[in-house]
Amino acid sequence: MRADPAEYRLVSPGNLQAVLSLLASEPAQWLPIAGGTDVMVLYSAGKLSNRKLINIWNIPELRQIEVFPDRIRIGAACTYTALRQHETVSREFPLLATAASWTGGIANQNRGTLGGNIANASPAADSLPALLVYDAEVTLISVRGERRVAYRNFHTDYKQTALAADELIRDISLQRRFSGYISHARKVGARNAQAISKVCLAALGQISNGTIRDVRLAMGSVAPIPLCLTETERALLGKQIEPSLIDSARRTVAKEIRPIDDIRSTARYRAAVAGNLVAEFLEKLVASETNT
Ligand SMILES: Cc1cc2nc3c(=O)[nH]c(=O)nc-3n(C[C@H](O)[C@H](O)[C@H](O)COP(=O)(O)OP(=O)(O)OC[C@H]3O[C@@H](n4cnc5c(N)ncnc54)[C@H](O)[C@@H]3O)c2cc1C
User: Fold this and answer.
1) pTM (2 d.p.)
2) 34 C-alpha to center of ligand 1: Å?
């Protein structure tokens, strides 16, 4: 059933304070809409239960990418195109720039926003594993003030988040301390473009003399929320990379993830691919040293 536009109301206050006041005046009644690439899919399918929409696309504070000496602050309504084109994001946070390049097609990247991806909270979302490995912090804002939440604690269960009904995601902060890491981003889908991930990986690592000095791993589509592979990280840290370690990492990954069967894939396939992607990353780490 298609939605009837006459049943919906859309307002566009154009400034942050007015948006926050409206959200506070009737909590859970007003739904923020940024790029609309998730909201309009629900609307078109007649599945958008909120009848009141508040436009946040044109709020200047939400559209900026600010670079500080120690961190970068990305406004929640920055698009994938803005992320891909930003020099510091591309150079220092390649996992995020790569995930932006995977997300839908060009039209989708011109409208879809990072804040929308986070709030929509799909476990298959492509940019979220990158935010986990980069230890992102999100700033949430409401008329009550603002608070910062470690992104690792933002997703509480399937499609459940720390965001209160009167809050907006204002920005996402990333510390500029990952330049010396080898990074590895992989998305496995039905095809290269316009496909939702069956499994995706964001990985960072440091190696010297064959030993893993630091490792950070996160995956999408393998659990109800985007998942940090903390057990696998622990099992790898300080170890020499050799075939037996790679085999045991595959087993730890399989224990740690909770994949399901759905229309895109099976739990068995996802578990096999998840292990392969981590193995591929470990081989890349070894090769990075051999090649220098
Ligand atoms: C054809 C197509 C292909 C796609 N391909 C991919 C893909 O490959 N990978 C992928 O990860 N996603 C994909 N998506 C999903 C979508 O593009 C992303 O999730 C996008 O980032 C959503 O951002 P948006 O601004 O469009 O969100 P909207 O649709 O505007 O909003 C989505 C949700 O987030 C909330 N929201 C938005 N901004 C904020 C904020 N600042 N604070 C609080 N809540 C907020 C809204 O209220 C709503 O609940 C695809 C979508 C389409 C239509």
Assistant:
1) 0.96
2) 8
